[in-house]
């Protein structure tokens, strides 16, 4: 208390908390707004709108990050023509105690025309947990100027985490 301690953590049980605090201390505060796109029904064009928003932002000099949060959509890298590029997709992300460094978004995702995309895969099912979505969106907010999230029609617990971060 005399040293100004605000918390006591026991290791190794408190490792996740400690890693989270270190990541927060090393990173600047999240700055990019998050836009969520949810379709009313299949084929309504929500994914196309999400792509158009991200592409338009890149065309205006912003550094958008497009997050594919619809595991049944087929992967947003495909309509962007980025499917052959190397880079992380959801199953490949290097998680550290539920956190994702912004550098993974900046340098690890497929990129084309100034737009980075975190896509689902077409070859294996993708399960997106609330923690994974939160970590990815938070890292994207640090790495880009705008985050556009393509959400599935059915909004569950994981998608609620993203909606809580959305400005629009």
Can you put this structure into words, describing what you see?
It is a single chain. Strands 1-5-2-4-3 form a five-stranded mixed β-sheet, with helices on both faces. The chain is built from five helices and five strands; from the N terminus they run αβαβαββαβα. The chain has helices at residues 15-26, 46-59, 102-108, 130-143, 157-165; strands at 34-38, 64-68, 111-112, 115-118, 146-151. The protein is an alpha/beta fold and 168 residues long. The chain is globular and about 60 Å long.
Approximate shape? globular
Number of distinct beta strands = 5
Radius of gyration: 17 Å
Classify the secondary structure makeup into a structural class. alpha/beta
Average pLDDT, to the nearest integer? 87
Strand content: 5-15%
Q: Show unreliable segments.
A: none
Helix and strand run: HEHEHEEHEH
| Largest sheet data | 5 strands, mixed
Q: What percent of the residues sit in helical stretches (DSSP H or I)?
A: 25-40%
Could you give the order of strands across the largest sheet? 1-5-2-4-3
């Amino acid at each position: 208390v005399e040293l100004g301690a605000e918390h006591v953590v026991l290791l190794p049980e408190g490792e996740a908390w400690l890693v989270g605090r270190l990541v927060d201390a090393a990173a600047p505060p999240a700055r990019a707004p998050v836009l969520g796109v949810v379709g009313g029904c299949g084929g309504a064009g929500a994914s196309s709108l999400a792509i158009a928003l991200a592409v338009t932002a890149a065309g205006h000099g912003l550094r958008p990050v497009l997050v594919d949060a619809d595991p049944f959509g087929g992967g947003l890298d495909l309509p962007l023509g980025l499917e052959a590029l190397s880079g992380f997709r959801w199953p490949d992300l290097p998680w550290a105690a539920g956190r994702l460094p912004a550098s993974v978004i900046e340098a690890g995702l497929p990129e084309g025309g100034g737009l980075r995309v975190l896509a689902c895969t077409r070859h294996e099912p993708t399960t997106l947990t609330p923690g994974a979505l939160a970590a990815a969106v938070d890292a994207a907010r640090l790495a880009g100027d705008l985050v556009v999230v393509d959400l599935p029609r059915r909004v569950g617990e994981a998608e609620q985490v993203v909606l809580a971060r959305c400005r629009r």
